[in-house]
Amino acid sequence: LAFVMLIAITWFVEYPDLVGAPLKVVSNNLPKNIVSKTDGNLIKLYVTEGQEVKKGDVLAYLESTASHDEVLELEKTVNQLVQLAQENKLNDIQNTEIPQYYNLGELQKSFQAFQQALMASKAAAVNGVFNKKKATIGNEIGSLRRLQENAKSQLKLQEEDLRMALEEAQSQQRLSEKGFVSKLEAKNAMSKYLGKKQAFEQAKGNLENNTISQTQKQQEIFEIEKNVMDQKVALIQSINTLKSDIEAWKQRYI
Description:
By secondary structure, this protein is an all-alpha fold.
């Protein structure tokens, strides 16, 4: 009886094969909102509704005092210069043709700073100012060294002559005390010794001045090399600054 009742209930109570339920499909890559980082008008749009885009694609231009096309063209050149700077190819940087840009807006200042650093570096390289000056100072140091060697030889001879003059003066002094020579002769011998001693001391001073002059000339070479390095650093720094400013501008207006 219970079994028959159970079968009778199943006739009236049904369980469907398909169950209806609400469903929400969520993508792994949800649509992203693009929010501009500056206020202004949208002057150019490069995409349409539903278009698939990739990272780095240009979607739109926002109004700026600079020309977007000029800035992007400048960026290509700057990227090449950054690569050359990383490879330490200063000559290639100096020989790179840089177009003139007149609508860079707030980037004009950093671009002009780069141009000035590049022109200074080119002028020094083309005219060879630093190299010529360095070569001239090197020749002067060579002359000073030759004079120094000659002065050292002369000083040795003067030292020997001074020793002999001192012995002569002392000998004349002893003979004068014993009455074998006059006091005048002894004074003359001493005066001769003092004159040679003065010349010897002057020669020593000239030799020391020669050494000081060489040191000063060497310092001038160091200053020239420092100027060359400072120009190189300033040029590379101006390139990196311009690159950074372009990136910041793109974040705001592209």
